[in-house]
Write a structure and sequence with these properties.
The complex is a heterodimer of chains A (253) and B (253). Chain A is an alpha/beta fold and 253 residues long. Chain A has seven helices and ten strands. Chain A is globular, with a radius of gyration of 18 Å. Chain B has 253 residues and is an all-alpha fold. The chains are: A alpha/beta (253), B mainly alpha (253). The structure holds adenosine-5'-triphosphate (ATP) and magnesium ion.
Chain lengths: 253, 253
Amino acid sequence: MNRFIECIGVGKIYPGKDQPVEALRGIDFACEAGEFVCLLGRSGCGKSTLLQMVAGLETPTAGQIVVAGKELQGPSPYAAIVFQDHGLFPWMTVQKNVEFNMKARGTPAAERRRIAAHFIAMTSLTGFEGRYPHELSGGMRQRVGIARALTTGPKALLMDEPFGALDAQTRGKLQDEVLQIWQAGRTTVLFVTHSIDEALLLADRILVFSPRPGRIAADIRVDLPRPRVPQSAGFTALARELRELVGADREID
Amino acid sequence: MQWRRALGLLPLALLLLAWHIAVELKVYPPVLLPPPAKVAMVFIDDWQTVLDNAAASIARVLTGITLAFLFAVPLGLMIGRYRLLDTMTDWSIQIFRSIPPISLIPLALLFLGIGDKPAIALIFLAGTWPLLINTIFGVRGIERTLIKVARAARASELLVMKDIILPASLPAIFTGLRLAVGGGWLTVVTAEMIAVKSGLGYMILNAQLTFRSDLIIAGIVVIGAIGLLADQLVRRVRASVCRWQEGLTASPE
Ligand SMILES: Nc1ncnc2c1ncn2[C@@H]1O[C@H](COP(=O)(O)OP(=O)(O)OP(=O)(O)O)[C@@H](O)[C@H]1O
Ligand SMILES: [Mg+2]
């Protein structure tokens, strides 16, 4: 097995204001290069924390994270992350925001513009290049964050509830786009979601988290053929199983 | 909208009226309290004196504040960014900013003699503290996610400073600049009464010796008017430089 991302006994305790907060404990999992893994779980069970640790933005307080055979030290060169709260620079236009990751890598300006135009079109933001984030809707902001993460062709794409604020139609379209990018580039994707259906539409594997402290309660392989059909018997059966595991409705929270 | 702006002139009109009535009632003899018309004549008969002295004061403030800006803004950006520098400078800043620049006039005269130098040095000090403190405050206020975006992109320290820390702090820096210009203007007038033989401060002090209360009052009017203009100018520049901030902050009803 070709392990691309591996967490070994990973735990995270935040210092906290009054008392320490144990966000994660004993996280063990490995995923192969090119795998699409969804992280599913209630609010506060440490999904964002885990994603940021895999990106190298937070350091584990226990255990270690190995990416591409090396223990992570600081921000990972393989990963691009889509933040839950967008993380757009309010003083930059859409164009500048999308170009930022490339600029940080020293990509020449002309190439930046060409690649940015491609992903701006893909996320249906054409015509809004000159706008500032505060002039966009929540869904549009999320799409800018997604476009920015895709520009550098990352080996690992870490997405933190990227489609949370989108309408069903845009959501469906972007799910297709992410699947296409994933299939074309054999990108490894870690994808946080609150939606059981979304996880079943996208994932090879679903990690179900349980809270306080965050742990992996179940690791479920989704062997349904693609493209996935939500009405199929296998889909509904798995959905039922997952609903029981997280102990909630379709949209958990 | 236009006539609403005119409301701002109301208190000034009332003051003028009170002045007029006081003159009519002969509260003070005309040598001490000249009628408004006589003060207005100063701008026709002595316009050269007023203009030369105003220009001298403005030049000093411009020099002092420019120096303060070049010194305090880069320093503030560094202190705001690097904890160690902050720990090192925090007490010193708190101590020195509590010293009124005026109280340093005697020292400035001893070290720098009579002339432009002590005046500019004091304006520099008056402008440095608000600029420094507001710049640090601006850097501190940056959203944590935005710094994470930069780290995830593995942006160089220079790019982080230039594209993130500086633009994010600009609104606060301009707040500091407004305070600095205000403080510098207060300081120049006082310094000119003691340390230099030109400028509006010198002009009104000298006018007292020659019993020209019309010139004193005209000088005070000019000092106030320039203060207002300078403030409006900084606000305009801020509004155009920080255009991205429009709509982010609540505007007063
Ligand atoms: N910087 C921080 N400092 C202190 N505590 C934190 C910090 N970040 C997260 N936590 C705590 O860690 C726990 C896990 O947070 P995290 O954001 O990872 O959850 P999540 O699963 O992403 O939740 P959601 O689905 O609501 O986004 C929470 O209890 C949270 O309060
Ligand atoms: Mg989260």
